[in-house]
Amino acid sequence: MYDKDTPINVLQVMDKCAIRGSPIHGVSRLLLTWWPGFSNTNINLQLAVLRGGYNTCDAFTSIGIDVIDLGRSKLDPRTVFDLVKIVKEQQIDILHCHGYGATTFGRIAAKLANIPVIVQEHMIDKAIPFYQEVVDIILSPLTSQGIAVSKAVQTFMIKKRHIKQKKMCVIYNTIPMEFCNVIPKEKKDLVKHKYNLPDDKILIGIIGRLDSIKGHKYFLEAAQILLLDRSDIMFVVVGDGELNNELKALCSKFSLNKHVLFLGHCDEALILTCLLDIFVSSSLSEGLPMAHVEAMAQGKAIVATAVGGVPELISDNKTGILVEPKNACSLANGIKYLLDNPRLSNQMGDQARKECQKNFTTPRTVEQLTKIYQKLVSG
After folding, report:
1. Looking at the predicted structure, is the pLDDT value of residue 39 above 60?
2. Are 298 and 357 in contact (CB under 8 A)?
């Protein structure tokens, strides 16, 4: 019988640490928040990446997390035997997999190694490849546990990834408790000076990788609409990615160069979030976005598209404003509503912070995952 004091070795398996021109993606950010949370538990986390590549895992290695980079191509079947070898050498008890490649090869490896395997999904992929659905149907019986980051993602996993509902659970993305702390003025002033953020403007910002799924063009179109009536606004774009040049060209086309700051990838994203007056998301699809949780932690007024798990995170007209996706006018109206009602905006931000502290901090995730890991090894 399993003893709760016995260490459990869990191998987190990801396809890659970065994505499409951005040096880090949401799954990496989530795992980085998990690691310290398990430091004083009997859960030992390790990390393997199917295809890391030069400097793409720096976010982990820079803080002392060892990354096993398999260096395999997308469809290389040797990945299975690499994982089996790691399981044996590191005495791994559970594989916890993130991404199509990781969940495909990971389930086969777990079967060969005779250990449990977790499939965790972080997004709703409306363009899931047909072949992946076929693979998921075949491998579904090998899944020990499915984890979704929102109820919307859980529905996607059941319907499109073919994991049985009885094996599913929802664990919301969370952030460290200290992210809810008030950031000292001197830190904010340093970051504001570093990025030349103006003192005499209302800062409206969007934070995330520059990818079509994030809908940045609608953010820029909304900026164009809002600037017709106001001159006291500065729009801030934080993040990097493959659409960087395209979005800057669109900014020029809309004559927004004097009103939009592109800051690129920033390690001070939380402080930048704190400096914003209004946090905006124009995404076309989301699982349960980390940037939104961080904005809630800092008590920011939020305007976000009602997609995926966002409505589970933000209560419309209570902790933020939800708007239609792919609709710049709707986005602009939501922002304008908060601009015109600053007192209400502050109230929403305060309520968002309380909601975050209650439901979206790392200790909650550590507790939930620990119970799952213990159940699987005892089972």
Report:
1. yes
2. no
Reply yes or no on whether the pLDDT at 25 is more than 90.
Answer: no
Phi, psi values for residue 360, rounded to 5°:
-130, 40
* Cα pseudo-dihedral 283, 288, 290, 293, rounded to 10: 100
Instruction: Tally the residues of the chain.
Output: 379
Model pLDDT, residue 22: 59
Q: How far apart are CA 274 and CA 349, in angstroms?
A: 11
Residue found by looking up tokens 């200290």 in the block: 178
Predicted local confidence at residue 52, as pLDDT: 77
Q: Give the CA angle between residues 103, 307, 354 to the nearest 5°.
A: 95
Domain ranges of the chain: 8-173+361-378, 177-359
DSSP-derived letter for residue 184 is: P
Whether the pLDDT of residue 2 is over 70: the answer is no
The DSSP bridge partners found for residue 8 are: 43
Yes or no: domain 8-173+361-378 corresponds to CATH 3.40.50.2000:
yes
pLDDT at residue 334, rounded to an integer: 98
In the block, residue with structure tokens 């951005």: 22
User: Would the pLDDT of 74 be above 70?
Assistant: yes
Q: What percent of the chain has pLDDT over 90?
A: 88
- Quick one: pLDDT at residue 17? 83
Alpha helices, H only, 93-195: 100-113, 130-139, 151-160, 185-194
Tell me whether residue 345 is exposed, middle or buried, using C-beta atoms within 10 angstroms of its C-beta: 0 to 12, 13 to 18, 19 or more: buried
Q: Give me the phi and psi of 206, to 5 degrees please.
A: -130, 135
Q: Which CATH superfamily is domain 177-359 in?
A: Glycogen Phosphorylase B; (3.40.50.2000)
Long-range (24+ apart) CB contacts under 8 A made by 349-352 are: 349/299, 349/300, 349/301, 349/302, 350/299, 351/318, 351/319, 352/295, 352/296, 352/299, 352/300, 352/302, 352/314, 352/319, 352/320
Other beta carbons within 10 Å of 340: 9
Task: Convert the pLDDT of each residue in 105-149 to its tens digit.
Answer: 999 999 999 999 999 999 999 899 999 999 999 999 999 999 999
Determine the straight-line distance between the first and last CA of the chain, rounded to whole angstroms: 9
pLDDT computed for residue 57 by the predictor: 85
